[in-house]
Write a structure and sequence with these properties.
Number of helices: 1
CATH superfamily: Domain of unknown function DUF5300
Strand content: over 45%
Oligomer: single chain
Strand order of the largest sheet: 4-1-7-8
Structural class: alpha+beta
Distance between the termini: 43 Å
Length: 121
């Protein structure tokens, strides 16, 4: 009888964990990295179905954000450098239901390096 009282809560916990992990939506974990020696400003990422941004990313700092891809299109980064010049960089095409990680690095010469590690969900 005692083993049954232990078995039921364990089975319920396993069932709850499988339901929670089985119903997850696909997310993209994004890191926008400023590799410059000066801050970048008015940073905006436009992805298929939405956008996000931050006022400033300090020198050699990282801004993290996660999002759902809601359509299929290319991703774009817009930012202003320390000299006040606006920059726009087109990134890779993202497809709905992809998930994983995306690293966006702003190099010292204002070039943008995209490193997607995405898989279809």
């Amino acid at each position: 009888m005692r083993s049954l009282s232990v078995l039921i809560p364990v089975c319920c916990a396993i069932l709850a964990a499988s339901v929670i992990t089985g119903c997850q939506s696909p997310w993209v974990q994004t890191a926008v990295v400023n590799q410059q020696d000066a801050p970048i400003h008015l940073v905006e990422v436009d992805y298929p179905g939405g956008s996000f941004g931050v006022q400033t990313i300090a020198p050699h700092a990282v801004f993290h954000y996660r999002f759902h891809i809601l359509a299929t299109d290319r991703i774009t980064l817009n930012f202003t450098d320390a000299a006040g010049h606006n920059h726009t960089a087109k990134g890779p095409q993202l497809s709905q239901k992809e998930e994983g990680a995306l690293r966006i690095e702003v190099a010292p010469d204002n070039q943008v390096v995209w490193t997607p590690t995405l898989t279809a969900h």
